[in-house]
């Protein structure tokens, strides 16, 4: 088709058609390359300042965080403890999550939920570990919602991991809520 | 659409048309003429100052922009959100854009009073004219719908939670949604209002398009850089009120397409569309029957009283202009900006980008002082906002080419304008001082308050002012090649014609923004950069003088 023909109505419609055709190809390539786009879905974590390092190490060792020093920190600073824990090499300190969630449950549970939704696969797994180690009952509704969301999105691996952690937390919670267990009384048959 | 006009009335289409009371031959002729005008009529050529050899029509650019919008939105959302949220956003954007486009370009798309001059004396029955107009309108809506939904319809197939049923379901939802929006708008305007959108409504909706551009171009970039996962969390915790919106109903249908879709939703949509469009056809036909000079479709008859001869412009104009020719152009441009609602409506959206960045910066706490902060994320927005001020100048000056009263431009061509550069200077100054200067001052106030350092704000905006002046001279070189208001506005010409040049100016400005970012790190560096920027503006001014004289001479011989 030469320039003269392109200037006709048919030519102009062909040009538009060509633009749509190129768009269709581009869209098909995008649809087929979901893994490429998923590579960019990952959280970035801040670095814990040296001054807060001792506080983090204390939480990792004792499972408790100095309440006075912690209360002086802003929310952004507090979240750096989470960032630090998330970037620790495997295995991460097991006592830190419980210490952090005990100090500020709303902040840290919401942060872990965000990692479950917006993190990479490995970050989601680490966030689940955080919730499991935190052992908080408040994490149960959060995980139930995340499981529904994961089922809907057909991320079967993540669904299985969430269900696993949820089951453990529900068992822990049931044990804690059991009045006999709480009072130190065990069933006859198990003595 | 490209059928022959002399085709015998024996085809199925002809028989259907006759049964509908439409005469096939004039219907085909009118439809073909409308499609031709859409693409490459003389109007288009003049409106865009396109040469006869130019192949790319403005309509092509508009379709390209809508494709780009849907491409960016798809790329931002893909793999990050669920199928429901993906469909919801795209259907919502599509319905909003098609609605705003219809209202903003109402005169060009639905009701063009100039048709009366061309078709009025021809033996074309009203029903045939209405059918041709509405078919053309339907073609416009379908093409824009395709451009706005092509990417989400196909890219959505790649989401984890969709199957092959997603594609037909999404296409059906997009068609139902967009046709319903257009039908309801037409019905509203033809039933409750005066037959055409009010100027205020069109101005508001032009701003709506601006906000969408902001969301797509800048919001998209922010999503990719956002460390708070706001987009993912918004999809995860989507607010309950969303469920009450029609795009959410359609998105639920698309989302459930793979697993027992709620077919009653598109079914109800189709019935709704059938009812609305039946009413629309009746109402619009009646409206076409009433079109007459001085009627509702016509431009308003009463205009503000002009100044007395010999008193062009006020003190402001005398202070800012150097010669009478400059002052005449300054007055003409100022008067038209004050009088021509279409011109204002087409011009304001280009200012939205810079404003949007400042608002986003305020909202996200990323409006840092570039002279102090070394955090790139903190200073990108205030610097980008500054350099985005370069875009409105070419866009607004491009808009000055068009006017509903373009036929009166012979007055300018026959006027004794000896110094065309001085004339274009008057136009540039009117746009710069009447539109951009208040914006620059407003940004200065915002930066001074946020940074708590008026000196830094002043230096920052001084660089911004040079950018504005430089962009004005660049527009003189690239756009001002004829007298203003001498071309008719036609579909797509407004947004399409300046896209390439505006993009080049924006790209240059953004390159300068990168230099600015590094220059502000030291006073000496900023001083050197400021001097270089001033030299560039001076060079552009000198170049503009030469280019404008040559272009006007060429255009005069052509006219």
Strand content of chain B: under 5%
- Main pleated-sheet profile of chain A: none
Report the principal-axis shape of chain A: elongated
Rg of chain A, Å, rounded: 25 Å
Q: Helix-strand pattern of chain A, N to C?
A: HHHHHHHHHHHH
Gyration radius of chain B, in Å: 26 Å
- Relative strand content of chain A: under 5%
> Count of helical segments of chain A?
12
Architecture overview:
Chain A is mostly helical and 191 residues long. Chain A is built from twelve helices and no strands. In chain A, helix 9 packs parallel to helix 11 (156-177). Chain B has 559 residues and is mainly α. Helix content of chain B is 70%, strand content 0%. Chain B is built from 25 helices and no strands. Chain B has helices at residues 12-19, 24-40, 42-47, 58-77, 83-104, 106-109, 115-119, 126-155, 166-191, 199-225, 230-236, 246-255, 264-290, 315-320, 324-339, 341-347, 352-364, 376-387, 392-399, 410-414, 420-451, 454-478, 493-496, 499-519, 523-558. In chain B, helix 4 packs across helix 10 and helix 18 (376-387) packs across helix 24.
What structural keywords apply?
heterodimer, A: 191 residues, mainly alpha, 12 helices, 74% helix, 0% strand, B: 559 residues, flat, disordered N terminus
Draw up the topology in text.
The complex is a heterodimer of chains A (191) and B (559).
Chain A: H1 3-6, H2 9-32, H3 34-38, H4 50-62, H5 67-71, H6 75-87, H7 96-103, H8 105-118, H9 121-134, H10 139-153, H11 156-177, H12 179-182
Chain B: H1 12-19, H2 24-40, H3 42-47, H4 58-77, H5 83-104, H6 106-109, H7 115-119, H8 126-155, H9 166-191, H10 199-225, H11 230-236, H12 246-255, H13 264-290, H14 315-320, H15 324-339, H16 341-347, H17 352-364, H18 376-387, H19 392-399, H20 410-414, H21 420-451, H22 454-478, H23 493-496, H24 499-519, H25 523-558
């Amino acid at each position: 088709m030469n320039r003269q023909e392109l200037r006709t109505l048919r030519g102009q419609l062909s040009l538009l058609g060509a633009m749509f055709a190129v768009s269709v190809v581009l869209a098909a390539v995008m649809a087929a390359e979901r893994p490429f786009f998923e590579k960019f879905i990952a959280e970035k974590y801040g670095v814990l300042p040296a001054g807060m390092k001792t506080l983090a190490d204390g939480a990792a060792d004792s499972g408790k965080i100095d309440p006075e020093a912690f209360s002086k920190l802003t929310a952004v600073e507090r979240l750096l403890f989470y960032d630090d824990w998330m970037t620790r090499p495997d295995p991460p300190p097991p006592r830190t999550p419980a210490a952090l969630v005990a100090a500020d449950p709303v902040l840290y549970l919401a942060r872990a939920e965000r990692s479950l939704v917006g993190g990479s696969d490995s970050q989601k797994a680490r966030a689940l570990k955080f919730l499991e180690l935190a052992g908080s009952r408040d994490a149960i509704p959060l995980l139930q919602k995340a499981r529904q969301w994961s089922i809907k999105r057909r991320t079967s691996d993540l669904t299985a991991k969430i269900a696993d952690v949820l089951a453990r937390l529900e068992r822990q919670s049931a044990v804690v809520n059991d009045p006999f267990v709480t009072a130190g009384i065990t069933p006859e048959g198990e003595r | 659409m490209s059928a022959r006009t002399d085709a015998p009335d024996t085809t199925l289409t002809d028989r259907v048309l006759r049964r509908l009371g439409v005469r096939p031959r004039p219907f085909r002729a009118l439809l073909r003429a409308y499609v031709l005008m859409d693409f490459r009529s003389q109007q288009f050529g003049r409106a865009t100052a396109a040469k006869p050899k130019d192949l790319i029509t403005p309509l092509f650019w508009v379709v390209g922009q809508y494709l780009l919008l849907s491409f960016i939105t798809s790329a931002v959302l893909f793999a990050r959100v669920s199928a429901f949220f993906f469909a919801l956003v795209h259907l919502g954007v599509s319905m909003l854009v098609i609605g705003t486009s219809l209202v903003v370009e109402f005169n060009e798309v639905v009701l063009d009073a100039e048709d009366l001059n061309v078709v009025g004396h021809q033996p074309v029955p009203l029903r045939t004219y209405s059918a041709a107009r509405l078919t053309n309108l339907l073609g416009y809506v379908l093409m824009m719908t395709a451009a706005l939904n092509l990417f989400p319809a196909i890219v959505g197939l790649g989401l984890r939670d969709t199957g092959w049923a997603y594609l037909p379901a999404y296409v059906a939802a997009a068609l139902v949604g967009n046709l319903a929006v257009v039908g309801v708008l037409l019905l509203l305007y033809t039933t409750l209002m005066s037959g055409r959108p009010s100027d205020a409504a069109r101005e508001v909706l032009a701003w709506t398009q601006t906000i969408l551009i902001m969301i797509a171009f800048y919001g998209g970039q922010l999503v990719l850089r956002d460390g708070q996962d706001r987009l993912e969390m918004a999809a995860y915790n989507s607010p309950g009120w969303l469920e009450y919106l029609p795009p959410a109903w359609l998105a639920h249908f698309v989302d459930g397409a793979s697993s027992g879709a709620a077919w009653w939703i598109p079914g109800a949509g189709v019935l709704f569309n059938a009812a609305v469009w039946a009413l629309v056809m009746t109402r619009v036909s009646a409206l076409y029957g009433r079109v007459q000079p001085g009627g509702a479709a016509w431009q308003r008859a009463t205009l503000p009283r002009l100044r007395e001869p010999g008193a062009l412009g006020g003190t402001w104009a005398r202070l800012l202009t150097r010669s009478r020719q400059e002052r005449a152009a300054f007055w003409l441009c100022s008067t038209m900006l004050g009088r021509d609602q279409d011109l204002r409506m087409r011009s304001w959206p280009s200012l939205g980008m810079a404003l949007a960045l400042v608002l986003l910066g305020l909202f996200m706490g990323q409006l840092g002082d570039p002279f102090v902060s070394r955090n790139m994320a903190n200073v990108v927005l205030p610097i980008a906002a500054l350099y985005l001020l370069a875009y409105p100048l070419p866009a607004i000056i491009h808009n000055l080419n068009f006017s509903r009263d373009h036929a009166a431009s012979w007055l300018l061509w026959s006027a004794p304008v000896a110094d065309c550069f001085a004339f274009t200077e008057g136009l540039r100054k009117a746009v710069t001082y009447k539109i951009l200067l208040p914006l620059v001052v407003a940004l200065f106030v915002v930066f001074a308050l946020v940074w708590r350092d008026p000196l830094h704000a002043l230096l920052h905006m001084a660089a911004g002012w040079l950018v504005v002046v430089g962009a004005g001279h660049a527009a003189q070189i690239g756009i001002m090649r004829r007298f203003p208001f001498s071309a008719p506005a036609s579909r797509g010409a407004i947004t399409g014609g300046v896209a390439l040049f505006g993009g080049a100016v924006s790209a240059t400005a953004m390159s300068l923004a990168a230099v600015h970012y590094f220059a502000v790190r030291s006073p000496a560096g900023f001083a050197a950069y400021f001097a270089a920027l001033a030299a560039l503006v001076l060079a552009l001014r000198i170049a503009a003088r030469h280019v404008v004289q040559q272009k006007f001479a060429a255009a005069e011989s052509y006219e």
